[in-house]
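ok trying again, last paste got cut off:
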Amino acid sequence: MLGWALTFLVIALIAAVLGFGGIAGTAVGISKLIFFVAIALFLISAIAGAMRGRSPRV
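nice, full thing came through this time. structure:
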């Protein structure tokens, strides 16, 4: 997911340099959304893994 966020960020930068403000703004918005979703999923996964813990070896 972070790869997609980075891709949209690069698209936004290129569009901004070429003068396409609307496309750049939309790409930045999508990039931010994907980035925060990826961070949220990471935190949920980390908390679930910590709660599950390690099973004792017998």
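cool. The longest helix spans residues 21-52. The chain is about 85% helix and 0% strand.
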